[in-house]
Description:
There is one protein chain. This protein is α/β, with parallel strands linked by helices. It folds into two domains: 20-37 and 142-309, CATH 3.40.525.10; 47-138 and 318-339, no CATH class. Helix content is 36%, strand content 11%. It has a five-stranded mixed β-sheet. Helix 1 crosses helix 3. The longest helix has 25 residues, at 303-327. The protein is globular and about 60 Å long. The termini are far apart.
Amino acid sequence: xxxxxxxxxxxxxKKRDDLIPCDRMVLDPPQQKGKxxxxxxxxxxxxxxxQMYTRVRNHFADEALVLPQDTxxxxxxxxxxxxxxxxxxxxxxxxxxxxxxxxxxxxxEEAVKNLSETLVWRRETGLTHDPNASTAPGLSAESVAVExxxxxxxxxxxxRDSRPLFYMKNGRQNTEPSFRQVQHMIYMTEAxxxxxxxxxxxxxxxxxxxxxxxxxxxxxxxxxxxxxRACLNVLQNHYPERLAKCILINIPWYLWAFxxxxxxxxxxxxxxxxxxxxxxxxxxxxxxxxAQYNGKLDFHYKHDVYWPDMVAKCDASRERQxxxxxxxxxxxxxxxxxxKGTHDELKxxxxxxxxx
Length: 356
């Protein structure tokens, strides 16, 4: 069967008598089962790659480095340039630098360029998380909360390799197309990557196109190409190497044309991670999967319960990590493994050589 051939809808959920009541975000993954698990340390790289990593780290650790406040500043001699804040140094972790190097196929200059552009984009978008930042107003939970009143995007559970599950449910659409929908996707992506446990830096995206006939839901139509491309550009350019797999199910015949139109805009690495019309349960254990997809989580979205709980948990997790980052010296290139853990001593100091 061809890639874009019409396939059957996902099988109906089976009735179970072992359901687990759930209406909140879960931040603690099950004990490691997969080959990667969680809590595992850094992977080994070659001596040449270690040298590249060190040069990129030194570039962003340079106190003389300054960047503009928005993406329109290119060529503007009067644009305000500022050094990295402590929160931005926190974001430029060892794993972050490695993600950009891998995404650029270990082309050092390209990695520096792309990472710099993302730092400026995060300033412009208000994603620095710095309460003292002089950048754009933060992308806040309050500004996008209305977009999730029907639970069209969720972070819930983990796959077999302890990667957070990010559900996108097009058939629960409750708002008309607008840039706020892109902002909502960005906010939820930040929540998903924040939920990555120690030793894990990728997420699994589950896309369900089924129409849900409930109050507040206005459409199951595909988003406008402009909105879809904007979301895709954000994920590919500013969250490189974050996607482990994207599984799409319940794609009606009239949305296959939309999928075909969007497919050419996927970079080769993203295309390899797309899976069409395979059941979620093939990749996720039942106790981590929504019962609607033959899992055990008896999840019912209640906006006034799930949303504030998710926001509070993500904020608390981020603050805790930042505090540990500061305690360990607050330098560019500290490891997410260290500031996501509970240990007292650094496992990966700044000068740690990943080639040995």
